[in-house]
Amino acid sequence: MVAPTIRSNPDRHSVAAFLGIGTEELAERDRFQQPVARWLAADGNAVIGLATAFVRPDDRLFVTHRIDSEAAFAPLLHAAVDQLRQSVHLSIGRDQADRLEAARAAGFVVDLEATTYNVPFRPALARTADHQSTRIELVQADQVPPDDLFDLDVRLRRDVPGDDGWRGNRLWFDDELNAPEFDPAAYVVAVDRSGGGLVGLCRFWRNADGPALGLVGVLPGHRSGRPAVALVHRAMTAASRWGWAGFRTHTARVSLQRKLMAIGATETGGFLRLRRDG
User: Fold this and answer.
1) What is the DSSP letter of 36?
2) Residue 57, CB half-sphere, CA atoms under 13 Å: how many?
3) Which tens digits make up the pLDDT trace of 223-266?
């Protein structure tokens, strides 16, 4: 196959056509992602790949790919690196050996490795029961002020491996709370009974392909008494009523990986996050 032709910063109609959406929907998506740059790869008249660069709320510049032919990946990645000329991050599946080889050839190194899991509800609920904390009260997300919830989300995300420096994006956050995947019963918040405010949360998303554990965390200084277990059990109880046998999640934190395996999780794969310094 002849090397694909790369088009830098293509027009919106071409991008929307490749994604199979209208330009208005693309504009709505871009409100949240705010792309820095894009590249299209074409084999003759056929577009076979798209790369998009955007800055996350932790100021990390990421490049994402939508690929119809693997022949487009390496040329798109090299085009992005050549144009951006700064530190770039990239995520690929742990089993995508060809993409890993191409990324390493472009100067990327592995920055983080996360494992994905399927977790059956029944054993997980049984093994997390009876872990209530007298120090905290558990409430639904729709029962706390959105500003306070956003602040808690930002503080907890900074403690997630690879998310240090997270400062949040209120537009993203509010959109999540208004999306059909949001169920307040499965988005549980821990409140310090002694007046210490919000100290932790656990949230499950009601995705079309099944429940997903999005985040569980407790602020430092409030972790004694296993409040995270109580949060998970309450949120998981609500998610288990959606009609699925289990949920999926991922984490790079070794301690959480051990805890997931202890409640019946099955490893299903994983992904790598790579970094190339500018």
Assistant:
1) S
2) 15
3) 777 889 999 999 999 999 999 999 999 999 998 899 899 989 99
